[in-house]
Structures are given as C-alpha cells and as structure tokens.
Design goal:
By secondary structure, the chain is mainly beta. The protein has one domain: Trefoil (Acidic Fibroblast Growth Factor, subunit A) (Trefoil). The chain is about 5% helix and about 35% strand. The strands form 4 sheets. Strands 1, 2, 3, 4, 5 and 13 form a 6-stranded antiparallel sheet that branches. Strands 11-10-12 form a 3-stranded antiparallel sheet, with no helix packed on it. A two-stranded antiparallel sheet has the order 6-7. A hairpin with a 2-residue loop joins strand 8 and strand 9.
C-alpha cells in the first residue's frame, strides 16, 4: 500500500491513523467515478475494536454471511434498511482486517478476499489486510492486490473482489453504524 501512496504523491496521508485516500475504481452506472479532487475528504476514523454494521449506502443494506460449499461467504442483505451482521475492524500494518462477529465455523470469522470466488471467512492468519479509501459514496476497501469489493447482482448479492467490473456487478462502498 505504501508504494501506491507514494506513486500518487500522497505519502503524507499514510501517516494518518484514520484512513488513506487514493484512487477509486472505474465508474459504474450505479456509482459514477468521483472527480479526483473529491477523492480526499474528511471522514470518521475507522472504528477499531468496536462492533459496527457495514452498510452499503446505495442499497441501504448491511453485510451478512451465508454458507456456500462448506464455507461462510459475505453477501449484501436483500432488504433496504437491513443492517446486517456486525463486524470489528482490527489495525494491522498500514491497513485493517475485518472480523465478522458471527460465523458458522469455529475460528473462521475473518474476511479473506478470494477474488472472483468471493469474500469468505477464514482463520485470522489468512485474513486480508484492506486499505480504506474515503470517497463521496462511502468507504471503499482495497486488498493487497489492488482489488476492490464488488457486489454481484445476478441472484444472491455475494461480495467479491475485482479490479474491474462485469455488467452484473457494482462497486461496494460502505458506511459504518454502531
């Protein structure tokens, strides 16, 4: 992540314990690309160690988990106003790991970005470290490979990570609520 921040000339922001600003992914019909000047804006700090709901502001629904092929995967709730399950952010290096407060499998409660295969729950040692970027649409996460969470809109709204979108997906932006 530090290399990305230096390349963007934003090395000063890396020292902030709150969130780092950076590039937003390409535009979608649901979320047009923000103007580069709007990419950096004051946001509340990531609530480390506190149980919070992650809400997609455009859908007004939170994240849940569901079992698929003997693993827990993260998905967006189906109903507007559904706050979903709570998560806890943990500081690790220059980013954050995300712990789900409910899981179906013992010791498998940490978000692991498995690319097109979805965001699944794994052991703490396999947890993905996410950089957090504030945008005018909400907080945007990026994994170490520069992939962003996206919501697949073909049936169940699974959360996956991608560097670009297909026609059935949109970027996932979040706000936190206690």
């Amino acid at each position: 992540m530090t290399k990305i921040l230096r390349a963007l000339g934003l090395a000063l922001l890396a020292a902030l314990p709150l969130v780092a600003a950076g590039p937003a992914p390409a535009a979608t019909a649901r979320h047009p690309a923000p103007h580069p000047a709007a990419a950096v804006r004051p946001v509340a700090p990531v609530p480390v160690g506190t149980r919070v709901h992650l809400i997609d502001p455009a859908e007004d629904s939170g994240v849940h988990i569901a079992v698929h092929l003997n693993r827990d995967y993260v998905l967006l709730g189906e109903r507007r106003g559904d706050r979903g399950d709570r998560v806890v952010f943990h500081r690790r290096g220059h980013g954050y790991t995300i712990e789900q407060t409910f899981s179906h499998y013992v010791h498998h409660s940490w978000w692991h970005a498995a690319g097109a295969n979805g965001v699944r729950l794994s052991k703490e040692s396999d947890a993905t470290v996410f950089a957090v970027f504030p945008t005018r649409y909400g907080l945007l996460f990026a994994d170490e490979q520069g992939r962003y969470p996206a919501i697949h809109h073909n049936g169940t709204r699974w959360l996956r990570t991608a560097s670009r979108l297909d026609s059935r997906s949109s970027w996932a932006y979040f706000r936190t609520e206690r």
